[in-house]
Design a protein that fits this description.
- The protein is α+β, with helices and mostly antiparallel strands.
- It has a single domain (20-142), classed as NADH Oxidase.
- The protein has helices at residues 3-9, 23-33, 52-58, 81-104, 118-124; strands spanning 45-50, 69-76, 108-112, 130-139.
- It has a four-stranded antiparallel sheet with strand order 1-2-4-3.
- Helix 2 packs across helix 4.
- This is Nitroreductase.
- One of its GO terms (molecular function) is oxidoreductase activity.
Length: 161
């Protein structure tokens, strides 16, 4: 697949096979994430690999759709409000690179925002000065949903004089 096909076919997976994903694969995709643009090379991302004990405490309503691996991606706050926003945006780019690298090899992700709740931050031991960009189930898709309707980009483009 070329990059456009990878982008257009990627989905948020809500049904995973039980086939394991090894840490070497995950590390390779995370390394691809590090090529994300980030202002002043802040590299603000941190990754927590969620083990079974922490996963059970998080008590996600669907247990991340039985994904064989779960991880959290955090973004470090900057020294200014603007840098904190830039760091979060860079970390979102990191996540997208990770998602696309995994998808290119037939592995999907489920992105949950549950990590922002204080209870879940405490369970994961998220330090002050970090935002949780997402908690991700990672695995081989059991099922791939059809894409949801998107607004045509022409409706979102504004031409300035």
């Amino acid at each position: 697949m070329n990059i456009i096909e990878i982008i257009n076919s990627r989905r948020n997976i809500k049904s995973f096979k039980s086939d394991p994903i090894n840490m070497e694969q995950i590390s390779k995709w995370l390394q691809a994430g590090t090529m994300a643009p980030n202002h002043k090379m802040t590299e603000p991302w941190e990754v927590f690999i969620i083990g079974p004990e922490t996963r059970a405490k998080l008590n996600h309503k669907s247990d991340f759709f039985n994904a064989p691996a779960v991880l959290a991606v955090l973004s470090k706050h900057g020294s200014t409000e603007v840098e904190t926003v830039e760091n979060a945006l860079a970390t979102a780019c990191f996540v997208q690179n990770f998602n696309l690298a995994a998808w290119a090899e037939g592995v999907g992700t489920f992105w949950s925002s549950m990590g922002n709740a204080q209870k879940n931050r405490d369970i994961m031991g998220v330090p002050a000065g970090y935002d949780v960009i997402g908690v991700f189930g990672v695995g081989y898709p059991e099922e791939i949903n059809n894409p949801k309707e998107r607004t045509p980009i022409q409706e979102k483009i504004k031409h300035l004089s």
